[in-house]
Amino acid sequence: MKINEQELQPKQLLFNYCSTCQPLPGSGEEMDAFKKLQQGFCNQFELFFPDNFAPKTIVVIPSLTLDQDVLAKIDGAMHYEERLLCLLMLLRMPRTNVVYVSSAPIDPVIIDYYLHLLPGITGHHAWQRLTMLSCYDTSAISLTEKILQRPRLIERIKQSIPANHVAHIACFNTTGFERTLAVRLGIPIYGCDPLLNCMGTKSGSRTIFLKAAVLMPPGAEDLKTYEDIVHAVAALKDMHPHLKKAVIKLNEGFSGEGNAIIKYPDISTPKEMFNWIHHNLYKEIVPVAEGLSVDSYLEKFNQMGGVVEGFIEGAIKQSPSVQCRINPLGEIDIISTHEQLLTGEDQQIFVAAHFPANECYRAEVGALGKTISEQLKKAGVLGRFSIDFISVKENDAWKHYAIEINLRKGGTTHPFLMLQFLTNGHYDEQTGTYETPNKQQRYYFASDNIQNNAYKGLTPQDLIDIAMFHGLHFDGAAQTGVMFHMIGALSQFGKMGIVCIGSSPEEAISFYMKTIAVLDAETAIQ
Length: 526
Hints:
By secondary structure, this protein is α+β, with helices and mostly antiparallel strands. It has 17 helices and 20 strands. It is globular.
């Protein structure tokens, strides 16, 4: 008798599902299982995290589980998974294991580059406790989705966790996919419950700012359609006639790539202004993301919604951010402040950061960050997040406008982690300064966007050779120098990241300038 394969397939799929005994993604059963894992994480955190000699395993899932269409506009986006290689420095704890999963294999030269900086630990000892796994998949879906498509890979992750170890997942951001993976692995996530992700959208951020009673730009949230944008842009100008521009933001945009700019015309009457907006808004919208059409942008807006805000003007204007953490015990830490460097249309795209933020106000924005964090704590938020501000100097005083909450790691996470791991120092939230154990202050300049077509073709080995020859490595004795990241993107895209640590802001910048000069000279056409 001939078997009908089409009839057999659904039964076979059902058999495979039942054999794994896993709840369906997004089901109430899965959410209950995830909640239990997260509740158990509190005990794990209290008992094991303070002990550097406790046997534990960190499963690093550096997936950017974000809008893939917007992410595709960023050169070498897949190599952003390498930013969390800074967590390999956790191997400095001699009984800690790290399991690192990536979309594509990461060159061992890059891994060696990180491991040689481990204080008091040999590279061999660290390699024995490190498991590198790959999906061997460079397609345009998130890493976590790729892992979920590979049950055997999930089993390899499980088998890489020793039986006597406590374990948790460290990831870039948490969505329903990360929740499903956590349940499949049976370990918690040190991150926010996906059910709370709405608080990290542009609309959710404005709601939290309102509850925290902090200053924010005038605007409207929870917009859904193009018509909503039209009315919000018109109403904003009507209520604030001095405004010259408005910013449209996708709820789930990131690094400014989800923003668009509208310039108001010089029209005197509200009625004429409304008519102009109604008839001309579509052709006047300028998406920030390079190559993103207005039609595509508005389609994204219809899918995820967004906000309209007044563009904050100022002769002296800065863009600080505050990095925060709420641990499983409910304790709030202000981890750091940064001064963000923005570029693109009206300085909307994040490209680099100074640490710490401007000394004139870094303690102020840190305090505002704590006020906002209190609201997030009440809602049950867990893990690292950042809060961005626009700060304008008026009459010798600074006004700080809260702009957005990012309930995830970001571009300022890995540079600060590298500083901590390399120097073993401490950030003082009262003064906004960072000190090494011998009371020396440290500063850095960091960027994920060092890019030059001339750098294309440089392999990881080439970069390491150049750095060694010109003395660009981090000096453990002086606790200053240069650390590279996203090295895997260099050969194809001519792009990489850098953290330049100095004993002063000027020294940090000088390390950066020297590095660029060296790379330009080494890649100059003879």
